[in-house]
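User: Here's a structure from my thesis project, written as structure tokens. My advisor, Dr. K., wants to see whether a designed sequence matches the one we expressed. Can you design one independently, without my sequence as a hint?
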């Protein structure tokens, strides 16, 4: 009698054979899906079928999180509302003070007959993308020449200076950020009024305040704003804060490291300023004349004046005497009066004889064979 186990205890293929089969099947599915995307449709169908089950499983969590958010939101709204009321009160006081100062400034300017130095217009813009050069700090905005963007216009946001427009296209413009190594902005320290120029660095994360003497009063935490002396940036725009000051004895200038106040890389919405400076242009400087050139010109002028005086003198006359010689001649005139009277008669005779001889020589001589 042949014995066979019941169907419940039939094992079929061995465990090792099944392991190898399923491993090979999994690798084949992975490779085919990664190379040929064969399971995209299957994945989409399974995801659509299981979505209602997933939402039903997440309902308790969503109810709990919604209740917690409602409680937190109510408390947050109350605190934010209180903060906004306080801030509104402070801003209203500052607005009243600013209006009073503006009226007083206008009155003083009218009293002193001074005109407003500058007018600033702004145009909103948005960053589209970065430039392709990875070694520069530049972005492209969605405003161009057709919208009134001009080359050299400063770019700011609500915190401070972001950069400057360096290239303008019809519908776009290129902005060089403040941290670019080729960007320079004239600034001054708010606390002391010290003026200098701030530059970007090759790394593009900090700013370098150059041409600051070692003895200058610069401290960590000082705020830098635009000075407005270049005629490009309006005065008073926040630029950077001092984070480190290194003073070395072997250099004439201190090394001042700063960080930009505005988020240069984090800003998306910007303002492009159209700054019109009403200050008159600089006067034309005359070329400097060296000491040797001045002496040469002075000598040439004296020689020309002496030659002109010699030409103006008549033939037979002596050149004009100097004041000292004239005074000496006047002092010796009484002693020479008698001698001059005696010599005058002889001089007149000699002059008459010379004139008669010259007249005889000047007569034309008769040609040979000519009649008298």
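Assistant: Designed independently from the structure alone:
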């Amino acid at each position: 009698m042949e014995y066979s186990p019941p169907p419940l205890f039939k094992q079929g293929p061995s465990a090792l054979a099944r392991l190898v089969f399923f491993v090979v099947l999994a690798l084949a599915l992975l490779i085919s899906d990664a190379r040929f995307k064969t399971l995209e449709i299957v994945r989409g169908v399974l995801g659509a079928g299981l979505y209602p089950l997933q939402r039903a499983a997440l309902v308790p969590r969503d109810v709990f999180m919604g209740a917690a958010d409602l409680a937190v939101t109510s408390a947050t709204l109350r605190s934010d509302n209180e903060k906004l009321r306080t801030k509104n009160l402070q801003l209203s006081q500052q607005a009243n003070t600013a209006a009073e100062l503006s009226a007083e400034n206008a009155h003083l300017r009218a009293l002193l007959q001074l005109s407003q130095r500058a007018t600033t217009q702004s145009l909103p813009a948005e960053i589209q993308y970065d430039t392709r050069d990875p070694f520069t700090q530049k972005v492209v905005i969605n405003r161009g020449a057709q919208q009134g963007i001009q080359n050299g216009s400063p770019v700011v946001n609500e915190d401070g200076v972001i950069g400057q427009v360096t290239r303008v296209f019809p519908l776009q413009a290129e902005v060089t950020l403040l941290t670019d190594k080729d960007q320079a902005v004239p600034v001054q320290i708010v606390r002391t009024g010290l003026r200098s120029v701030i530059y970007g660095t090759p790394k593009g994360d900090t700013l370098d305040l150059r041409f600051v003497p070692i003895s200058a009063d610069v401290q960590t935490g000082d705020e830098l704003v635009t000075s407005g002396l270049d005629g490009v940036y309006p005065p008073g725009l926040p630029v950077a804060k001092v984070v480190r000051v290194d003073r070395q004895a072997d250099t004439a200038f201190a090394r001042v490291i700063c960080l930009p106040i505005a988020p240069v890389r984090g800003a998306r919405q910007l303002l492009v300023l159209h700054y019109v400076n009403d200050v008159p242009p600089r006067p034309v400087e005359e070329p400097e004349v060296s000491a040797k050139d001045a002496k040469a010109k002075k000598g040439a002028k004296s020689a020309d004046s002496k030659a002109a005086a010699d030409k103006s003198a008549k033939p037979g006359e002596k050149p004009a005497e100097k004041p000292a010689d004239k005074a000496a001649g006047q002092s010796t005139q009484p002693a020479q009066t008698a001698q001059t009277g005696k010599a005058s008669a002889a001089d007149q005779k000699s002059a008459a004889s010379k004139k008669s001889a010259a007249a005889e020589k000047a007569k034309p001589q008769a040609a040979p064979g000519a009649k008298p």
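When you compare it with your expressed construct, this may help: DSSP finds five helices and twelve strands in the chain.
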